[in-house]
Amino acid sequence: MQRKLLYLKSSFFLLLASLSLISFGQTQSDWVAPVDIPIQLSGTFGEFRNNHFHAGLDIRTQGRQGLTVKSVQSGWVRRVRISVSGYGKALYIDHPGGTTSVYAHLKKFTPKIEAYVKEKQYQKESFTIQLFPKINELSVEAGEIIGYSGNTGGSYGPHLHFEMRETKGQLPINAMRYPLDIEDNQRPQIQNFYLYTNTGPFSSRKEFPLVKKNDSVYTTAGICASGKVNVGLRLFDRQDRSHNKNGIYSASVRLNGIEYFSYQMDRMSFTDAKYVNVLIDYQELAKSKRRIQRLVAHPEQKVSFLKNLTGTGELEIESGKSYQLLVEIKDYHQNTTTIEAYLTGTSEKSTPNTDFENILDPSKDYLFDLEDKSVYFPKESFFDPVDVKIKSQGDTLYVGKNKYPLRNTYEVKYKVPQGDSLTLAQSFLAFVNDKGNTGFFTNYEKEGFWQGKSKTLGSYVISRDSVAPTIKAVNFKSGQWLSNYSFLRFKISDDYSGLKKFRGEINGRWIRLEHEPKNNSLIYDFSDLEFKEALHELTIEAEDQVGNKTVFKRDFYRTYN
């Protein structure tokens, strides 16, 4: 009887495994690449970006816009989002297997999706929009064209940002696991190798030149160290068809054969972004724009992709002992580069600089009341104790220097100055970065104070913007017949505080003006609406961040057949 039960159990698990393989095989065989061109990557999953980890693959589109983009599997459009920043024009498609594919920075959608979106935009009278169609309201087949590649939103050049996610929880997963034809025989490259003394902001680092032993292994001259150290690397990876410097897939650190640190980019959470700046040398990035990746787990970080090891990447080096250090980095195709270094423990210990006057403890909250200005740091504003000097000098409020990553935002209050109504209306609170450049600081006015929150240290001053936005017609003149035109084109810009909002109308009816901030363009498509009149009155109103307004008016003639 027992043998029979064991046989039945074995048969059951074999059946489950077979069904799982069949299901996986079906999923893979039904999968279609999102573009028809050879896949070249300008960004990989999980690579370190400013204030976030990259959640997808950036697929190059040969420097062009308008390439067809296909749904990788059958499903239905779950979300449409149009924004002038971030993902720009983006589609989110749910698939029956529990995954969601994302296509961002699109130039436009296919006609059935475009028509759905345009209807909603005119209902809401807004170009920027977020929509959640009902299940199967916009169904698509595997390989069906859903849009065309572009450069919209926070894109720095034409490409397709492509993601795969687990539908439940919308957790990004590495799209490299799907059958994308990506040729990659190149190993990751290590540019610089460093040892740090600790994980905090006052740690010191020392670079050790690398010596190439062969195509995949580097070494160093003998290293003398003491106490706790951890590894930092400047690195990148490339694929065969692309010259872009992309991120790596995995990294590990072993000391005398014991693994002390390891991660692998298979999936992540968007909340991981909160900790990206403690996995790098933040001061070096802020000062020199050089990103050094730290292979050590900060005590306060809680990223999802780090392996749960007893070690955190901190390596204890004892006096008189010898150690073999192995650092291994890989790309998704398992091309590997290794550093093999040998350390000797010494009795000489480095003494960290502790001579600071303005230490802020992250376990406490701090309120700096400077009469007409104040700064409030709630608990856990920082990851570590930091040295931040707060002072008021004339019109300037100094809130340290951008040397430390913040865990949460802090609050700034600045008393609105007295003055004539026009000057006051054109004044605003500006943030000053380390290079002395000022920009509009997002805030609101309450009880006579400008108030706002920031996640970057720096200075604040009162600035003034007296110039309203400018609007210029590009392809037509007032009083012109435009019956053969397909579009109206404009240039819209603001010289300082930035464009806040705009609205366009023809004969009193709202029109959809497509805005692209990167080239300051506004475009109206004549196919959107039909008018009975031949004479048309066009009005565009624009307002900047401090309330300066421009009204642009033109008449033109056009008949609709």
Architecture overview:
Strands 1, 4, 5, 6, 7, 8, 9, 10, 11, 12 and 13 form an 11-stranded antiparallel beta sheet that branches. This protein has 4 helices and 45 strands. With 561 residues, it is mainly beta. The relative contact order is 0.09. The chain is flat and about 90 Å long. The protein starts with a helix and ends with a strand. It has 4 domains: 41-177, Glucose Permease (Domain IIA), CATH 2.70.70; 189-345, no CATH class; 359-464, Chondroitinase Ac, Chain A, domain 3, CATH 2.60.220.30; 470-557, Immunoglobulin-like. Residues 1-27 have low confidence and may be disordered. Helix content is 10%, strand content 41%.
Shape: flat
In percent, how helical is the residue content?
under 10%
Largest sheet features: 11 strands, antiparallel
Kindly state the mean pLDDT as a whole number? 91
Total beta strands: 45
Record the SSE blueprint.
Elements: H1 2-29, E1 41-43, E2 48-49, E3 52-53, E4 57-60, E5 68-70, E6 75-82, E7 89-95, E8 99-109, H2 111-124, E9 129-131, E10 139-140, E11 145-149, E12 159-166, E13 171-173, E14 189-196, E15 205-207, E16 211-212, E17 217-219, E18 223-225, E19 227-236, E20 250-255, E21 258-264, H3 282-288, E22 293-295, E23 315-317, E24 322-330, E25 336-345, E26 359-360, E27 366-369, E28 373-377, E29 386-387, E30 390-393, E31 396-399, E32 410-415, H4 421-426, E33 427-432, E34 438-440, E35 444-446, E36 449-454, E37 458-464, E38 470-473, E39 487-493, E40 499-506, E41 509-510, E42 513-516, E43 521-525, E44 535-544, E45 549-557
Parallel strand pairs: 17-25, 18-25
Antiparallel strand pairs: 1-4, 2-3, 4-12, 5-11, 6-7, 6-9, 6-10, 7-8, 8-11, 8-12, 12-13, 14-15, 14-19, 16-17, 19-22, 19-23, 20-21, 20-24, 24-25, 26-29, 27-28, 28-32, 30-31, 31-37, 32-36, 33-34, 33-37, 35-36, 38-39, 39-43, 40-41, 40-44, 42-43, 44-45
